[in-house]
């Protein structure tokens, strides 16, 4: 997600906590470690360009309540106390990853479920709560199936 969704102070906390400034990323993608120059939102495009034959994926729900809590730093008045990233911002950030940061010509795909639970793989890979097709989708990824594409699973009918 870009700076629009990941606040600068949150990005600084993540970069420091994971020691990214002491990794090859600091030299190979300095803008990825500078929130004012694109920040963490640049890591996925950097990786897809650096490893064009690698198949990478993101699975998520549209309002993951756990991740939104982590991403909430900067949504409060100060960065030392987390707010909660609003569900609409989180979903917009996921759409940005899918549509802007990883255009269809890269080998990066998303599997997104309209819900707020955390981790799709805590359910069976054919579980209806994840659209029933996560296992098949992951198989397409690892077998280089040309039909592998982005998936958006709508919320179940009430």
Concise account of the structure shown:
The chain is an alpha/beta fold and 158 residues long. Helices cover 34% and strands 9% of the residues.
Would you kindly provide a written description of the structure presented here, covering whatever features stand out?
It contains six helices and three strands. Strands 1-2-3 form a three-stranded parallel beta sheet, sandwiched between helices. The protein is an alpha/beta fold and 158 residues long. Strand 2 (108-113), helix 6 and strand 3 form a beta-alpha-beta unit. It has helices at 8-17, 24-28, 43-50, 65-70, 87-101, 134-142, and strands spanning 56-61, 108-113, 151-153. Helices cover 34% and strands 9% of the residues. The chain has one domain. The model has no long low-confidence stretch (mean pLDDT 91).
